C-alpha cells in the first residue's frame, strides 16, 4: 500500500521537475522563431527601401533604409544572445553579411544617387541583387532550421506527456484500490476512535492532551470547567505561553513535563490546585503517549478529590506541596543559574582581556541578567513557600519580605514588635505570613499609600496584628474580593478573626489570633527561635 501511494507521488515530483524544463525550452524556441521572422521581415523592408531609392531617388526610402538597418542589427544581436552555442556562428555570419550590405549601400549606392545614368548603374543593380539574395537565403536557412528544431522539441514534449499521463492513470487506479482496501481495513479502528472521542468529550474527568513539542492540542469540556481554561485561547499554544495567560496552571503542567521529558507515569497523584474562588484538591493521572516507538505527547486526566473533613489537613497539604516546589526550584533552576554565573565569571576573569570589547560587554550584561534572574527566583521561591520562617522565624522572614517589597513597589514598610520570637507554631506562623503578604499585595495594587505600618501586640493569650497604610480615607466601603476572602479563610483555619476597613489616614487590616498556651508548644517555639538566631 505504501509503495502504491509513493510511486504516483514520485512520478508527480519527476514530472513537476522535468516538464517545466521542457516547457521553458519550447518557450525559448518560440522566442527564437519570432526573432527569425522579425529579422526576415526587416531584411525584406531594408532591401526594398534601397531598391526604391535606386530607381526613384525617394528620400523617404533612404530614411526607411536607415531605420530598418538599425532595427535589423538590433534583432540580430538579440538572436545571437538567444541561440545555443552551436548556432552562434551562423547568426554571426548573418550579422556580418548585413553589415556588408549596409556598408555597400552607404558607400556605393547613396553617393551615386538615383539620377546617375551611366553604364555603371547596371553593375550597381546587379551587385545589389546579389547581396539581397545572400541575405534572404541566410535568413531563410536560419528560420528553417529553427522551425524544424521547434517542431522536434514539441513532439518530444508531447510524447513525454503521453507516456507519463498513461503511467499516472494506471498508478492512480492502483492507488485508488489500495486506498479503498485501507479504508475497509481501518473502518473498525475509525469507529473505535470515534467512540473514544465521544467518551473523552462526555467524560466527567478532565482530559488534556499535549504533543511532544509541548503544545496543548486538546482539552475536553470537563477540563475547561475544572481548570478555568478556554479552548479557543489555549488550544495550539505552548505550555510556556499558557502559563503566562493562566499562571494558576503552574502545578498542573509539572506531571506533563515529567511525562514528556522523562517518560514518567503519574498515577493517583494528589495535587492542590489554586482556582478562582479557592483551592481544590485534585487526583491526577498522567502518562506519555508513544507512536512508532517515539514519544508523541502526554495525556493527563484529573478529577476533584473529596475535600477532607479537617481543613487543616488540606492546608497542610498545600503548604507541603509549596515547600516541595520551592525546593525543586532551588535545587534545579538555582543550581543551573549558579553554574552559568560562575562560568561567566571564569570566562571574564581568565579570557576577558583577550575578548573583543563588544563581546566582553555582552557577557557582562548576560551575567547581570542571570544575577537578576537568581534574585527574582529567590523572591518567587519565597512567595511559594516562606522558607526563612523555618530558619529564623516569622518576624525576620517578614523583614526580609518587606525589604524586597520596598524595592519593587517603592513603598516603605515599618514593623513594630516587642519580641522577635512569638508563641506560635510553625504552621500558624506560615498562615499569618500569608495573610500579611496578601495585605501588602493589596496595598500595592489598590492603594496610593507610600508607607505601611505593621504592629504586633500581645495581650495575654491573644496576638493582634494590625496592617495600616497611609493611602487616605474613602467614603465607599471596601468590596471584599478574592484577597480579603482568602485572608479571612486563613484566619478562620487558625482559630482567629480578621477585620478590615478605613481608619484615619488609610486602610487597616486587623488580625486577631489566639496564642498557643505554655508547655510543649512554647518550648518548640523557643527552640525554633533560638535555632534561627
From TrEMBL:
Domain PAS: 196-264
Claim: Cell division is one of the keywords in the record: no
CDD domains reported in the protein's UniProt record: HATPase_UhpB-NarQ-NarX-like, PAS
EC number: 2.7.13.3
UniProt entry tagged with the keyword rRNA-binding: no
SUPFAM superfamilies reported for this sequence: ATPase domain of HSP90 chaperone/DNA topoisomerase II/histidine kinase, PYP-like sensor domain (PAS domain)
PROSITE patterns per record: PAS (PS50112)
Source taxon at top rank: Bacteria
Signal peptide range: none
Catalyzed reactions: ATP + protein L-histidine = ADP + protein N-phospho-L-histidine
PANTHER family referenced in this protein's UniProt entry, alphabetically: NITRATE/NITRITE SENSOR PROTEIN NARX-RELATED (PTHR24421), NITRATE_NITRITE SENSOR PROTEIN NARQ (PTHR24421:SF10)
Protein name: histidine kinase
Amino acid at each position: 500500500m505504501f509503495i502504491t501511494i509513493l510511486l504516483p507521488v514520485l512520478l508527480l515530483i519527476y514530472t513537476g521537475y522535468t516538464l517545466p524544463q521542457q516547457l521553458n525550452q519550447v518557450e525559448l524556441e518560440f522566442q527564437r522563431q519570432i526573432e527569425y521572422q522579425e529579422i526576415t521581415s526587416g531584411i525584406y523592408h531594408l532591401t526594398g527601401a534601397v531598391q526604391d531609392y535606386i530607381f526613384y531617388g525617394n528620400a523617404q526610402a533612404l530614411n526607411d533604409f536607415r531605420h530598418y538597418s538599425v532595427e535589423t542589427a538590433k534583432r540580430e544581436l538579440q538572436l545571437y544572445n538567444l541561440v545555443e552555442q552551436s548556432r552562434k556562428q551562423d547568426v554571426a555570419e548573418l550579422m556580418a553579411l548585413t553589415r556588408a550590405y549596409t556598408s555597400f549601400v552607404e558607400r556605393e549606392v547613396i553617393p551615386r544617387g538615383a539620377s546617375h545614368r551611366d553604364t555603371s548603374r547596371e553593375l550597381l543593380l546587379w551587385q545589389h541583387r546579389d547581396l539581397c539574395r545572400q541575405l534572404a537565403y541566410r535568413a531563410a536557412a536560419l528560420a528553417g532550421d529553427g522551425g524544424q528544431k521547434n517542431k522536434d522539441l514539441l513532439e518530444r514534449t508531447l510524447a513525454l506527456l503521453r507516456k507519463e499521463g498513461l503511467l499516472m492513470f494506471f498508478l492512480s487506479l492502483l492507488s485508488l484500490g489500495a486506498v479503498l482496501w485501507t479504508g475497509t481495513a481501518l473502518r473498525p479502528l475509525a469507529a473505535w476512535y470515534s467512540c473514544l472521542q465521544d467518551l473523552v468529550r462526555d467524560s466527567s474527568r478532565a482530559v488534556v492532551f499535549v504533543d511532544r513539542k509541548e503544545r496543548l492540542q486538546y482539552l475536553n469540556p470537563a477540563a475547561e470547567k475544572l481548570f478555568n481554561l478556554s479552548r479557543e485561547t489555549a488550544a495550539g499554544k505552548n505550555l510556556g505561553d499558557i502559563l503566562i495567560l493562566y499562571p494558576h496552571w503552574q502545578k498542573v503542567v509539572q506531571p506533563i513535563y515529567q511525562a514528556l521529558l522523562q517518560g514518567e507515569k503519574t498515577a493517583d497523584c494528589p495535587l492542590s490546585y489554586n482556582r478562582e474562588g479557592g483551592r481544590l484538591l485534585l487526583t491526577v493521572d498522567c502518562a506519555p503517549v508513544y507512536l512508532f516507538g517515539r514519544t508523541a505527547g502526554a495525556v493527563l486526566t484529573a478529577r476533584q478529590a473529596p475535600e477532607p473533613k479537617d481543613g487543616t489537613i488540606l492546608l497542610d497539604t498545600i503548604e507541603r506541596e509549596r515547600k516541595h516546589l520551592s525546593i525543586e526550584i532551588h535545587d534545579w533552576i538555582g543550581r543551573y543559574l549558579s553554574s552559568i554565573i560562575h562560568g561567566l565569571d571564569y570566562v571574564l576573569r581568565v579570557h576577558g582581556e583577550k575578548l573583543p570589547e563588544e563581546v566582553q560587554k555582552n557577557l557582562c550584561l548576560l551575567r547581570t541578567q542571570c544575577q537578576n534572574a537568581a534574585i527574582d527566583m529567590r523572591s518567587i521561591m519565597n512567595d511559594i513557600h516562606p522558607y526563612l520562617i523555618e530558619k529564623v522565624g516569622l518576624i525576620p522572614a517578614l523583614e526580609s519580605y518587606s525589604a524586597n517589597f520596598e524595592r519593587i513597589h517603592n513603598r516603605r514598610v515599618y514593623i513594630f514588635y516587642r519580641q522577635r520570637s512569638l508563641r506560635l507554631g510553625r504552621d500558624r506562623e506560615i498562615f499569618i505570613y500569608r495573610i500579611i503578604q496578601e495585605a501588602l499585595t493589596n496595598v500595592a495594587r489598590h492603594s496610593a499609600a507610600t508607607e505601611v505600618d505593621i504592629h504586633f501586640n500581645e495581650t495575654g493569650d491573644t496576638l493582634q496584628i494590625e496592617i495600616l497604610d497611609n493611602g487616605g480615607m474613602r467614603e465607599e466601603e471596601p468590596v471584599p474580593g478574592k484577597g480579603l476572602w482568602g485572608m479571612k479563610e486563613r484566619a478562620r483555619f487558625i482559630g482567629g478573626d480578621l477585620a478590615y476597613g478605613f481608619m484615619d489616614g488609610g486602610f487597616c487590616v486587623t488580625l486577631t489570633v489566639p496564642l498557643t498556651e505554655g508547655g510543649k508548644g512554647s518550648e518548640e517555639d523557643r527552640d525554633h527561635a533560638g535555632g534561627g538566631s
